[in-house]
Amino acid sequence: MRVVPPEFESQRVGATGYRVLGLDLDGVCADYTGGLRAFCMERTGLPASRFPEPRHYDLTRSGWPFSTTQQYLETHRAAVEAGLFRALRPVPGVVECLNELSAAQVHIRIVSHRLFLSGLHEQVVADTAAWLEQWGIPYMSLCFTGLKDSVDATLHVDDAPHMVESFRAVGGRVLVFDQPYNEHLAGPRLTSWIGATDEVLRLFEG
Amino acid sequence: MRVVPPEFESQRVGATGYRVLGLDLDGVCADYTGGLRAFCMERTGLPASRFPEPRHYDLTRSGWPFSTTQQYLETHRAAVEAGLFRALRPVPGVVECLNELSAAQVHIRIVSHRLFLSGLHEQVVADTAAWLEQWGIPYMSLCFTGLKDSVDATLHVDDAPHMVESFRAVGGRVLVFDQPYNEHLAGPRLTSWIGATDEVLRLFEG
Predict the structure, then answer these.
(1) Left if phi > 0, otherwise alpha if psi is -120 to 50, otherwise beta: which for B50?
(2) Residue B154 lies in a domain
(3) Any idea which residues are catalytic in this one (chains A, B) (predicted)?
(4) DSSP secondary structure string, A6-20?
(5) Which residues of A are less than 8 Å from B118 in CB distance?
(6) C-alpha span between A194 and A92 (Å, rounded)
């Protein structure tokens, strides 16, 4: 069994893991809002101003033209079927930062909730892997799960308020990735990936 | 946040999860040995007798014509590139049993180490999702990771001796899926998926 080096003992995860970064994709690494906005503008012909920067995590409460969750989910499904998860832009600086972290012995564990759509699992996982490959994002684990707080990491990065709360409810360390819809959450907080490598490495130390 | 029903409190995982079955694929759900044997026979022209039922987890120590780990890995890679993960046969009874477990409120979390091949991630994850779909295996989480013992579950099922040991080292409950190469491990042990639903549900209770 692999042995955890003594200098990383405080960063341990499970029997043999250490320096594990649990990394959300949408809203953290990938510009989901921008991608969905582009899809909606193309489909509806409405201007960008009808799809403002969301100040609430729930897009039916953020001024977007969705009156019900069902309507939002139908649009999300249509966008995914049209290849949304291959088309997203990376959040600025994330590719460089993750490559630097990986070089610093960080095990990058992608933890995403993207599999909530029935019938689209194969496309979602293939598009996700293709996107990570396309942008040269290094990763060693790829987990699709809604129960994120039971996938351990030394440090998680997430933007969704309910996810941050559930990680903290079980004693997990979470770095809140700064978005207008999570301003009410306590830090630590990451405002940008640009030049963030040292800051993230310091947080690994506890 | 989702609430754990009181009758499942002893089956809890994380803040909101319960009845989570952490399920390995190769050697547990999918007949990896049989699939690799068929590939090797086709490629080498050697008879099935040259690829005996492995009595050691390491195929270089089980009478297969691999003299080094490197040689085994090259063959594994060639088989995966040729579509091994779509072609595997399910282990008898697994499809029916997992459908029954899913109907009994079990959250099936696939936990596989298949991503150890560089450059093949997209194919591996797509082929895995396609295979699960093709055989009608219900699942709610799909995790590719080598650090399995930090992906929690109420009950794990695995066949690999080192994985069983690492789950137990961190206090996890593991059901050993019976294979000739894991006979030395202490139980509980699952000898077959056929008719196993009640047995698995009892083990969830602790």
Answers:
(1) alpha
(2) yes
(3) 24 (nucleophile), 26 (proton donor)
(4) GGGGGGEETTTEESE
(5) none
(6) 7
Tell whether A135 and A150 lie within a shared domain.
yes
State whether B97 and B178 are in the same domain. yes
Given an 8 Å threshold on Cβ–Cβ distance, is B129 in contact with A125? yes
Q: Of B86, B110, B126, at which residue does a domain stop? A: B86
Average pLDDT (A42-60) is 96
The complex's ipTM?
A: 0.96
Residues A106 and A46 grouped into a single domain: no
Regarding whether A123 and A161 lie in a shared domain, the answer is: yes
In a domain, A1, yes or no: no
Separation of alpha carbons A141 and B112, rounded Å: 10
Residue from A169, A138, A184 nearest A29 by CA: A138
3-class DSSP state for residue B108?
Answer: strand
pLDDT value at residue B118: 87
* Same structural domain, A141 and A188: yes
Residue A48 sits at the vertex; the CA angle it makes with A43 and A51, to the nearest 5 degrees, is: 85
Show the tokens assigned to B152.
Answer: 């929690």
Number of domains in chain B: 2
Are the beta carbons of A150 and B150 separated by less than 8 Å? no
The verdict on residue A134 lying in a domain is: yes
Q: Is B24 an annotated catalytic residue? A: yes
